[in-house]
Amino acid sequence: MRACFFGDIHGNSHALEAFLLRLPEWKADAVYCLGDIVGWLPFGNRTLQRVRALGFPTVAGNHDLLVSGLFRDHPGQADRMQATAYNAGLLSGMEGAADYLSNLPLIREERDFSVVHHSPFALPAPGEAPTIQCFDYLDETALRGSLEAWRSCPKRLIFSGHDHVPAIYELSYSRGTPRFGEVRAFRPAGMEPLTVKISSGRRYWVKAGSIGGPYRDGCPCANAVLYDEDAQTLTLLRIPFPRGELHRELSANRLFGTIPTIRKYLELLEKGPC
Ligand SMILES: [Fe+2]
After folding, report:
1. Which of 61, 85, 155, 218 could form a disulfide with 36 if both were Cys (CB 3.0 to 4.6 A apart)?
2. Measuring CA to CA, which residue among 8, 4, 5 is closest to residue 210?
3. Cis peptide before 193, with omega less than 30 degrees from 0?
4. Ligand 1 centre from 181 Cα, in Å?
């Protein structure tokens, strides 16, 4: 069985199409979307329409829920709020868009893996609605705080998105309280895909990185993950996409020219391949 995971598309239809064009070559039996179909770029209507039509199993991202009005953002997230408001306006004319986004599940459980936008250990209590606090980033502090829960998690693999930084974390199965020093991190260098052989005695938390950006590892390419159960491998995929048209379209949006995160994103798109 081979499964492919992608998410954090954020309105970048150019990167999404580049990923979909390559998808057949990875011969995936199942494809999962890790959420954040919309948000950030001012083209969320395009990617939402495309992803809905594809019908892949999908989990909710924080941007999907923000745009659909399920909860408010942190007061300090001015850039994100501006992009959210714009995307909510775009989707207001799309039949059923807000209902679709707000009804996406927060997690999907498969036989040996969980699929979630951020963390299976930061979900709301049963019966409670999610809040923005369910979507902090998986930085070192958050990873340290999750070690105990991660080790006792019944699933061997976790696939998530959210941070826009592709990485594979490996946790060994020693006895006693898990220590942060037991976590090994694997990250791709440049545009080369990175394949990691997985071991039955270990657990893996795989961050897919982002299809559409903003790219927080400084590499302007689409990212996805392939899990090959038979070969027992995980591969972080790096997929180039045509950046010129996106740059032109984004530059033409004067409102988005006032958002510092988007200005930085445009500068990164101007860079050559990393
Ligand atoms: Fe995202």
Report:
1. 61
2. 8
3. no
4. 28
pLDDT at 240 over 90: yes
What spacing in Å lies between the alpha carbon of 199 and ligand 1's midpoint?
29
CB 108 within 8 A of CB 57: yes
C-alpha closest to that of 138 among 157, 163, 117: 163
- Tens of pLDDT, residue by residue over 144-201, are 899 999 999 999 999 999 999 999 999 987 777 788 888 999 999 999 999 999 998 8
3-state helix, strand, coil in the chain (%, to 5): 35, 20, 45
**Cα separation, 256 vs 246, whole angstroms:** 13
Q: How far is the CA of 99 from the centre of ligand 1 (A)?
A: 19
Distance 194 CA to ligand 1 centre (A): 21
Ligand 1 center–CA 173 separation, angstroms: 30
- pTM beyond 0.85: the answer is yes
Distances from the Cα of 245 to the Cα of 34, 136, 258, 263, 269, angstroms: 25, 32, 20, 16, 10
Residue 44: its H or E element: helix 44-54
Q: How far is the CA of 116 from the centre of ligand 1 (A)?
A: 12
Distance from the alpha carbon of residue 174 to the mean position of ligand 1, in angstroms: 33
Domains (range + CATH), the chain:
2-270 (3.60.21.10)
CA of 42 relative to ligand 1 center, distance in Å: 14
Mean pLDDT calculated for residue range 263-267: 97
pLDDT (0 to 100) of residue 253: 97
d(CA 81, CA 78): 5
